[in-house]
Amino acid sequence: MATESTRADAVDFYWRPSCPFCSMLRMRLAEAGLPVRELNIWEDRDAAAFVRSVARGNETVPTVAIGDEALVNPGIKAVRDLVDRVAPHLLTRQDER
Question: CA–CA separation, 75 vs 65, rounded Å?
């Protein structure tokens, strides 16, 4: 469970250009109305390092992080399940629109 110090204000979405899996998940995240912070691993060394740290040394994208939890190459259902579990306030924010 996310603590106050790790409370997420968005879904961190790690991606790279020309990745069809990234494009598909980006579209699904937009449809879900979740707040998303996009991090291009080809332009952001820290983002690439984070992805390697959770993907067995690989730069596998898409990767999603919420608070202290990360998913490598997830589908939208896995992302929604993670939001439900560790950051339900992101869903509340979506419903307030």
Answer: 13
